[in-house]
């Protein structure tokens, strides 16, 4: 095994460790495109070692891709159901995976609603 070099400059051997897999794809000028999403999914599919890989074969590791909020799409969809969405950047989006069991799912929903109410969040 090769020994790490001595500390010099900005290098500090205390921070030497194995890194888990990560990928990053972006347009340098911030332009959105389907190709960026496609490339990000390809990276995700090809990372064998990710930081949150689960040992169980029947569950996922939670890995995914992060994208910009598709404001125009969400705005139009909200209008269709009679909901007025704030300006881009003035709201957040979350995705939750709830249990398939109806009773457990409703219990989770109630917990989420109570937590949102405590934080004075609007739905």
Polypeptide structure, described:
The longest helix has 17 residues, at 102-118. This protein has a domain at 1-67. The protein has helices at residues 34-46, 71-80, 102-118. It is extended, with a radius of gyration of 21 Å. By secondary structure, the protein is an all-alpha fold.
How many beta-strand segments?
0
**What integer value in Å does the Rg equal?**
21 Å
Mass-distribution shape: extended
Q: Which structural class best describes the helix and strand composition?
A: mainly alpha
DSSP helical segment count: 3
Head-to-tail CA distance between termini:
56 Å
Overall pLDDT: 82
Write a concise keyword list for the protein shown above.
single chain; 33% helix; 123 residues; 0% strand; mainly alpha
Helices and strands, with pairings:
Blueprint: H1 34-46, H2 71-80, H3 102-118
Quick structural gist:
The protein has 123 residues and is an all-alpha fold.
């Amino acid at each position: 095994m090769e020994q790490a070099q001595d500390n010099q400059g900005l290098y500090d051997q205390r921070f030497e460790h194995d890194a888990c897999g990560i990928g990053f794809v972006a347009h340098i000028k911030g332009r959105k495109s389907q190709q960026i999403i496609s490339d990000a999914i390809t990276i995700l599919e090809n990372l064998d070692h990710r930081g949150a890989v689960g040992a169980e074969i029947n569950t996922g590791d939670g890995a995914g891709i992060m994208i910009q909020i598709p404001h125009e799409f969400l705005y139009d969809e909200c209008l269709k159901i009679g909901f007025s969405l704030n300006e881009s950047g003035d709201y957040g989006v979350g995705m939750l995976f709830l249990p398939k069991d109806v009773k457990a799912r409703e219990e989770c929903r109630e917990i989420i609603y109570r937590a949102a109410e405590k934080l004075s969040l609007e739905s």
